[in-house]
TrEMBL record:
Keyword field: ATP-binding, Cell membrane, Kinase, Membrane, Nucleotide-binding, Serine/threonine-protein kinase, Transferase
Record flagged with keyword Secreted: no
Chain ranges of the Protein kinase domain: 85-372
Highest taxon of source: Eukaryota
Enzyme Commission number(s) of this protein: 2.7.11.1
CDD domains per record: STKc_IRAK
Compartments (UniProt record): Cell membrane
Record-linked InterPro entries: Kinase-like_dom_sf, Plant_Ser_Thr_Prot_Kinase, Prot_kinase_dom, Protein_kinase_ATP_BS, Ser-Thr/Tyr_kinase_cat_dom, Ser/Thr_kinase_AS
UniProt record similarity statement: Belongs to the protein kinase superfamily. Ser/Thr protein kinase family.
Enzyme class, spelled out: transferase
Lineage: Eukaryota, Viridiplantae, Streptophyta, Embryophyta, Tracheophyta
Protein's name according to its UniProt entry: non-specific serine/threonine protein kinase
Cellular component annotations (GO), alphabetically ordered: plasma membrane
Residues annotated as binding ATP: K124
Length: 423
C-alpha cells in the first residue's frame, strides 16, 4: 500500500489447482511499436463465457475496446518526461514499484518540459519487486481495453528489455487510502458526502467490471487502488491481479491466491475459489474503512483487533453501538439513517458466504438511496461529543471502543506466500 506501507505480503494458497494466468513469456505477445497489443488483448476477454448482465446501467457509460489504443513509449521518452525519474517527482510506491509524475504533450504524448503539457503518472517496475511481467501484462490487457469513467485511464506503456513501465492519466487527489489514513495536515478529513461520492464512483466501476459481457473479477479491491480526480471522482486502478470470470460455474479456482490481507474474501483465502462476490467482500471492507476511519488490517492495534472486519461486525449490527464505531473525523456530521443503511449494506457485503452478499448492482442502488438522503444536521445528539477531531496519526478516540489504541504501522499488507515480506 504504497508509500505508507511498511510491508507488502501476498497469499499463495498451496494445493489449489486449475487455471494459470496468461503466459509470462515475451514471445507470447505480438508487441509492436504502433501501440497494438493484439495477441495480449484478443485473448483477454475471450476466456470467459460467463453469463452477461449487460443490461446493467453501470455498463452504459463503459465499453470494451476491440483493440487497445495505447501509446508505446520508449524508455528515453519516459526518462525525459519524469526529469530522469527524479525523486521529487515520486507520487507514491506500491508492490510493482515507484510511481512518478511526468509531463507529456496532450496530443502527441511526447515528453515535454515539466510544468508544460499534461501531467501523467508513470509506474516503473522495481527489479526487486515480487510483481513483474505477468501483472504488467494483465494491466495492459484489461485496462488497455476497458473504458469507463470510473476506471483509471491507461495511456500507454514501455517495454524495453527489463524495463516495464505503465503510463496513466494523473489523478490529482491521489488515493483514497491517503485521504483516510495519511498523517497530519496532509489531507483534510473527508466529509460524509465525499465518502459517499467516492463509494458510489468505485461501486460503479466495479459494477461495470462485473456486468460487462466478459465478466471481470478485479481481485484487489482496496483503498489504495481507488484514485481520486480533482472533483473526488473515484477511479479504480491496478488490474495486475484481475481475472476473467468463471466459465460454466460460479467460481474460478486459482493456482495462486493473491490479493491483500484484510481485504481478501475468506473463501478465496481458504480455498482459492474466486467469485465475483469475492470483490463485493473487498468493497465491503473499504466501506467499513470509510465509515470507521480505521485500516482493514493494523497489527499495531491490540491483539484481537488487528482485523477491522472481526472487530467491527458487532458494531455494524447494533444501531445503538454504531456511532461509537464511526470515524471521529466525521465529527458526527452524517445522517444517522444514512449511516445505519451504510452499516447494514457493509454487513451484507462482508457476509461469510459469497451467496449472501449483494451484487455490485444492488450495492450501487443502495448507495444511491443513501446519497439521496444527503447530509442532514446531526441526528445523533451524542455524536459530536463522541467524535472529537483527532490529529492525523493520533489515536482515534472511541470512548468505549476496543479500537481506541494507537494507529499506524503494519498496515494493509499485501499477501504473498503466507508470509509477511518487506518491500
Ligand atoms: N494515476 C495516478 N495518479 C496519481 N497518483 C497515483 C496514480 N497511480 C498511483 N498513484 C500514487 O502512487 C501510489 C502507489 O500506487 P500503486 O498502485 O503503485 O501501489 P498501491 O496501490 O499503493 O499498492 P499495490 O501495489 O498493492 O497496489 C498510490 O497510492 C498513489 O498515491
Ligand atoms: Mg495500487
Amino acid at each position: 500500500m504504497g508509500n505508507t506501507c511498511s510491508s507488502i505480503d501476498k497469499i499463495i494458497c498451496p494445493g489449489s489447482s486449475a487455471s494459470v494466468p496468461s503466459s509470462r513469456t515475451k514471445a507470447s505477445s505480438s508487441l509492436n511499436t504502433t501501440g497494438n497489443l493484439s495477441a495480449f488483448s484478443s485473448t483477454t476477454f475471450e476466456q470467459s463465457t460467463g453469463s452477461p448482465v449487460s443490461s446493467d446501467e453501470a455498463f452504459i457509460d463503459g465499453k470494451i475496446l476491440e483493440v487497445p489504443n495505447l501509446r508505446v513509449f520508449t524508455f528515453a521518452e519516459l526518462k525525459s518526461a519524469t526529469k530522469n525519474f527524479k525523486p521529487d517527482t515520486v507520487l507514491g510506491e506500491g508492490g510493482f514499484g515507484k510511481v512518478f509524475k511526468g509531463w507529456v504533450d496532450e496530443k502527441t504524448l511526447n515528453p515535454v518540459k515539466s510544468g508544460f503539457g499534461m501531467v501523467v503518472a508513470v509506474k516503473k517496475l522495481d527489479p526487486e519487486s515480487m510483481q513483474g511481467l505477468e501483472e504488467w501484462q494483465s494491466e495492459v490487457n484489461f485496462l488497455g481495453r476497458l473504458s469507463h469513467p470510473n476506471l483509471v485511464k491507461l495511456l500507454g506503456y514501455c517495454w524495453e528489455e527489463k524495463d516495464l513501465l505503465l503510463v496513466y492519466e494523473f489523478m490529482t487527489k491521489g488515493s483514497l487510502e491517503n485521504h483516510l489514513f495519511r498523517r497530519a495536515g496532509a489531507f483534510d478529513p473527508l466529509s460524509w458526502i465525499l465518502r459517499l461520492k467516492i463509494a458510489i464512483g468505485a461501486a460503479r466501476g466495479l459494477a461495470f467490471l462485473h456486468s460487462s459481457e466478459k465478466r471481470v473479477i478485479y481481485r484487489d479491491f482496496k483503498a489504495s487502488n481507488i484514485l481520486l480526480d480533482s472533483n473526488y471522482n473515484a477511479k479504480i486502478s491496478d488490474f495486475g491481479l484481475a481475472k476473467n470470470g468463471p466459465v460454466g460455474s460460479d467460481s474460478h479456482v486459482t493456482t495462486r491466491v493473491m490479493g491483500t490481507n484484510g481485504y481478501a474474501a475468506p473463501e478465496y483465502v481458504a480455498t482459492g475459489h474466486l467469485y465475483v462476490k469475492s470483490d463485493v467482500y473487498g468493497f465491503g471492507v473499504v466501506l467499513l474503512e470509510m465509515l470507521s476511519g480505521q485500516r482493514a488490517l493494523d497489527i499495531s492495534r491490540p491483539i484481537g483487533q488487528h482485523s477491522l472486519v472481526d472487530w467491527a461486525k458487532p458494531y455494524l449490527a447494533d444501531r445503538k453501538k454504531l456511532a461509537r464505531m464511526m470515524d471521529p473525523r466525521l465529527e458526527g456530521q452524517y445522517p444517522l439513517k444514512g449511516a445505519l443503511q451504510a452499516a447494514a449494506l457493509t454487513l451484507r457485503c462482508i457476509a461469510g458466504e459469497p451467496k449472501n452478499r449483494p451484487s455490485m448492482k444492488e450495492v450501487l442502488e443502495t448507495l444511491e438511496e443513501i446519497w439521496a438522503l444527503k447530509v442532514r444536521p446531526t441526528e445523533s445528539k451524542n455524536a459530536s461529543s463522541q467524535h472529537k477531531p483527532r490529529r492525523h496519526g493520533q489515536a482515534p478516540v472511541h470512548p468505549r471502543s476496543p479500537l481506541g489504541a494507537r494507529q499506524g504501522g503494519g498496515v494493509g499488507s499485501r499477501v504473498v506466500d503466507h508470509s509477511l515480506k518487506a518491500r
